Amino acid sequence: MLKRQLGPCVTYFPQPTSIITSVNSEGTANLMTASWVGIVSKTPPTMAISLNKGRQTYDNISKQKEFVVNMVPASLAVEADFCGIRSGKNHDKLEQAGLSLQPAECVKVPLLNESPLNVECRLVQEVELGDYRLLMGEILQIHAAESAFDEAGKMDVRCFDPLVYLGGVREYWDLGNMRAAAYADGQRLVVDK
Ligand SMILES: Cc1cc2nc3c(=O)[nH]c(=O)nc-3n(C[C@H](O)[C@H](O)[C@H](O)COP(=O)(O)O)c2cc1C
């Protein structure tokens, strides 16, 4: 495959679209869109987010030591973009985006009600990366939409409909079709059985 070199930049596909909820010292909630987000350990369950140190969200999390990562469904693409282009320093993004909150179980930061998957985190570590701060959060609880489960308890991912962000070209897409079963279909290429 012929390649074009892009140099040291941040183009990478796909990235999740997430809305991070946080609270300030008065308990006022803020929403911020973030795509530099991911699960980084299973033992213990840990989520990492990378925030510019100038964000209101960084200020809130560094002081309150808690945050919630809310998965964004494709139906909320416009609202998520809005939460990524305005700061909670001078906007009530919750009100302006027409979104709502619900209480979390383990942290005082609320969940985004319209998100079908919410991850409650307690800040455990912070790493300085130039203008950014990599924040590691121990996962305390995950809430998944009840409507996604069948009678056998199996989750139907179509109910989540995650919004994918293509960093570098700045576009939001939704998911296509399932192509393979993870940890299973790769077995077809295993020779040392
Ligand atoms: C799609 C998208 C992804 C973003 N991802 C991040 C991110 O991972 N880290 C970050 O610091 N800012 C990210 N931003 C920018 C912040 O969301 C934006 O600066 C926001 O206004 C900060 O809000 P706050 O000041 O209320 O915390 C992203 C913006 C968009 C639109």
UniProtKB/TrEMBL annotation:
InterPro entries: Flavin_Rdtase-like_dom, Flavoredoxin, Split_barrel_FMN-bd. SUPFAM superfamilies: FMN-binding split barrel (SSF50475). Its cofactor is FMN. Signal peptide: none annotated. Gene3D superfamilies: Electron Transport, Fmn-binding Protein, Chain A. Residues 10-158 form the Flavin reductase like domain. Keywords: Flavoprotein. GO terms for molecular function: FMN binding; oxidoreductase activity, acting on the CH-NH group of donors, NAD or NADP as acceptor. PANTHER family: FLAVOREDOXIN, FLAVOREDOXIN-RELATED-RELATED. Belongs to the flavoredoxin family. This is NADH-FMN oxidoreductase RutF, flavin reductase (DIM6/NTAB) family. It comes from Malonomonas rubra DSM 5091.
